[in-house]
Predict the structure.
Amino acid sequence: MCQCQTGWTGNNCEIDVDECLVGPCQNGGTCQNTLASYTCLCENGFTGGNCEIDVNECLTSPCQFGGTCINTVGSYLCQCPPGRSGINCVGDVDDCLSRPCQNGATCVNEIGSYSCICLTGFTGQQCESDINECSQSPCLNGGTCINSVGSFSF
């Protein structure tokens, strides 16, 4: 009678035991049987002989532009600063989607911000203020100026 070493079975220890049958690989790892042993091929985010160790992806600082990394099981999340989005905070939020510019102004998206191109007669960061065209006395020879929204009349 033969007393077999670990990984072998049969009358003469001639049969390789398939260790993968008991499912030793954790967290979605794929088991590959080898002679008298096995190997686990781990999914991204896991390591260890049986894929039992969660990798802390935040150690590599994947979040860009001041984003804060939060390690999760098998992955990570980035909390992005204002104006940034995406997996690693590399995307720019289109700040014009909220339509911040007023009075018909054109919004120009910038990285982490926006600017407004005001129509004639308006001013302010969001073109929210009507310019009083009469404050400069455009009327000559005693004419009366009447200010209106975005313009003036005589």
